Amino acid sequence: MTLVFAMLTVQVLLGGFDNLWHHEFSEDLPHKPWARRELKLHSARELLYALIFTSIAWLRWEGAFTYLLAALLLGEIVVTMTDFVVEDQTRRLPKFERILHTILAVTYGATLALWAPELLRWTNEPTGFTLVYYGFWSWLFTLFGAGVLAWGVRDLIAAVRLGVPTWQRHPIKAGRSLLPRTILVTGGTGFIGRALVRRLVERGDNVIVLTRDPIKARDMLGPLVTVVGNLGSLDDNCRLDAIVNLAGEPLVNGLWTARRKRLFLNSRLGVTASIETLVRRLKRRPTVLINGSAIGFYGDRPDEILTEESGSQDIFMSSLCTAWEDAAKRIEALGLRVCRLRIGLVLGHDGGVLPSMALPMRFGLTTQFGAGRNWMSWIHLSDLVRLIEFALDTPTVSGAINATAPEPVTHRDFMRGLGRVFGWQLRLAMPTKLLVTVLGELSSLFLSSQRVVPAAALKHNFEFRFATIDAALADIFGHRKDAAPSPALPLAYVNENCPICTAEFRHYQRVAFANSVKFQFRNIGGRAYDMAAYGLREGDLKKRLYATLPDGTVLSGVDAFIPLWRSLPYYRVLARVVALPGFYHLADAIYEGMLAPWLAARNQRREMKNPARCVGGY
Fold it and tell me: Does the model's pTM come out above 0.70?
């Protein structure tokens, strides 16, 4: 078995690399709606491997059980072949991934050929399992089994989560405006773009989003946003009042090789050139362009205070930002007011770099880059969206605008402030030389010093809601000392024709009444029109629970249960547990993958017996 284990180890290492590099970093499959079927197949294969690896590490399948093991091994082939077909139907595989798949197939076939004589000998034994110990191999394959099991569960949870459109989890409410504008947003599915699109729709504007992945954008933004795959699809008579250009390949998704540097540049200049072409042919041109840039424009300037008047440096990041801004400046000649936003480190709870920086701190570990004396110029996501709004709405604002908070901090102070949010921390310093050696030029994003102040924004009387790092972090992580509990409670929408749903919420109502808590829920049948402004129909409301928060935010599924439970005595501990990472995803998978579909099927059977009843869960 030694040679079989060695061949399977090669299979595991190659498969792990394929998962990490192609499925995670390159394609980001767990967040692509069209990848749901592929993720299901990946999960099935990984769960098969988990059973096979863990069992052969300690057991020998003998007699009739050998044929069962052979069926599992052949089942892996069927799943893999189906996966190959689905991949060809849904995405364009890079050459290297195709080569790697071929190597994996050949390796697996060779492994089975080597293992076949041993399996034949096992069939001659009495049916049963025999305990075995292969020393190092037993422990290694137990580890492999646990790893692929975790990955299989993770892929299954992702596949279940993709079954619910993202926009239905957090619907956007269309606002009303006396003078609604039509605004084109590029990069509308990114961290900043999503928040901006939501805000523009909520205030009553019509939003058009340009994206490379229209399926993902529609899944994420919903029916209230128009999605286009290229600007050529917009008619010459199309009315655009403003353009916000945030498109560009992310800088942190891999080392800065020569190829990736070209991709960074071309992705920004290409979209900006397309915008220029669009503006030239439109019969009615927009009045303003808000063009993204970054404080990387200034380069590495240790303690120098930087305003919009400060110059750039002769390094890659400065050159990238300068080229992007120059491309935007050319559009000024077409009669548009152009604002160039030099954006700092954007802080928010659902994207950007902050969640990954905060993750080790949840376990009591703070990592500092180098000596920590480099300056970090940051901005709260909410303030950045408001600043973009301000630039759109203020005719006197143009040119370079530093999109940073008024009070930059050193990296050391930033990490200490973040550490205070999570309590006691063990502080570790990562040597500068190690970062440079491992990350190359990418390390400049973490080590460069830029002490930037928003002189232009302050000059035009823009007010930052989060001027200090402590205020921003307290808001993001929900630890504001001055925040009092809201007397208003979530309002739930329940399918009155689902007996289980109604019974559960009647129970919640009794618990609330016994403890003098006002608990509210409405029947969907009579109040479905409440949700029309969110793009939700009655059929959508019956598929899962929806709840409206006091500020008008609508949540669904497990996200809706958590604030409801928080409002009820005896359920608050449950709400805290379910909100924890890991527990949340497991609860979401159970609810969306099992409970909600079961309720829908159950109610459908009831409807067939009594057509007057409505279909759905809650």
Answer: yes
